Structures are given as C-alpha cells and as structure tokens.
Amino acid sequence: MLTGKQKRFLRSKAHHLNPIFQVGKGGVNDNMSKQIEDALEARELLKISILQNCEEEKDDVVERLVAQTGAELVQVIGNTIVLYKESKENKELVLPS
C-alpha cells in the first residue's frame, strides 16, 4: 500500500500526464486490462479517463482496473483515474519512504 507521502509524490508526477486510455461504452474488458498492464510496466504511472458514455459506475471501473492490473490507485479526479504500478524492468520512479 502507498503512504500519503508517496501518493502526493505520485500525484505531482502525474499532474502533467495526459490520459492514454479511455474507458467508453464497452466498459473495462480483459483486452483493455492487459494493455493497461503493459503500459504500466513501461511507464509505471498513467492516467485513464472515463468517457461520459461509459455504462459502468466510476467506482466499479476503478475497482476492476485495480483488481485486474494489480496496480495501486493514486487518485480519482472527476472522470480521470491515476494508477501506479512499480515496473519490474523499467523502474524510473523512486518513491519517498
């Protein structure tokens, strides 16, 4: 689990990022989860936006993404989710302790 200090650090790093995935009408599926997992391995930190036509509840989308990718939820602002997962091979972010 991330500490408050680590979440603040990650939020500051995520601030300038643009969402690279969008959850739309189809909701979260296995293919999307796999792509997000691969992107997390490459980048460690990413934003995902939930489109207005998404038929799933925002909380359900967040829960499924976290469960299926094994990522940590950093924050949810409006319809944007920020996820973090430590990379096995491309470790770039050093979290404060």
Automatic annotation (TrEMBL):
PROSITE patterns in alphabetical order: CRM
SMART domains (UniProt xref): CRS1_YhbY
Name of this chain's protein: Ribosome assembly RNA-binding protein YhbY
Record InterPro entries: RNA-binding_CRM, RNA-binding_domain, RNA-binding_YhbY, YhbY-like_sf
SUPFAM superfamilies noted in UniProt: YhbY-like
Keyword match Translocase: no
Domain CRM: start-end pairs: 1-96
Domain of life: Bacteria
UniProt KW keywords: RNA-binding
Entry's Gene Ontology molecular function annotations: RNA binding
UniProt-listed PANTHER family: RNA-BINDING PROTEIN YHBY
